[in-house]
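hey so i finally got around to running the thing on that chain from the lab meeting. sorry it took forever, my laptop kept dying and i had to restart like 3 times. anyway pasting the input first so we r on the same page abt which one it is
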Amino acid sequence: MQIQKAECLFGVPLFFFKQIQNELAKFAAKKQFMATEDWKAALQNVANPEKIAILSSFFKTGKGEYGEGDIFIGVTVPENRKIARKFIDSDFRIIEEMLCSNIHEHRLSALLSLVLRYKKARTDTERRQICDFYLAHTRFINNWDLVDLSAEYIIGENCLRSGDYSILFSLSKSENIWEQRISIVANLIPIRAGQYGQAIKLVEQLLHHPHELIQKANGWILRETGKKDSPALLDFLDRHNRDMPRTTLRYAIERLPQNLRKKYMGK
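ok and heres what got predicted. didnt touch it at all, straight out
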């Protein structure tokens, strides 16, 4: 019977290299698991159980509400941001694990680390990588604070840098309310830089949205636009104040003089 010789590389059987490869993969997985657990433990160490009920109610986690099933451990945003800063250089696989968590503060911490990482990035390639990662995981950015504390600083900033706002118009057409809110809130940084034409178009597209979270976001964007260009806001109100949701209108006119607020509210 003929005995088949083992395949070799540099005189060493290939199965030996495969064993090493498997061991290295196990080690990397263990290291990744430990890093993720360290991040979660750091958040747990500053968690305040007394805040859980308040946060759960505030972010509407009850049955049938927009945050249904979300779990809180009671970490404040300032404390979370401090911890996120410590994990700013984590591998994207670790950030993904945090984003996939059913605990709200884990997801928020992952997003805060991405925001800090984007600010730290020095090349367009780095920034594009962070932006692409964010857009690939929007299904986990599923409450208004997660959107509001991240969208403008990553997506909005990237749109301003590139001058390309097409991704916002794509997100606005999504059936996912959080992607729709991202498409609106991301405009805050461009607006502050004087770029608000796209924001007005996006608000017009979603002006009659039935959900109050989009109505409020629309009003917020209009108000911020008015700070940069009051005539642009007044022109929008003159065209739409009679048919726009009252919630949007109230938010939009907050900074206007009293006589104009009364005019647009019909009082």
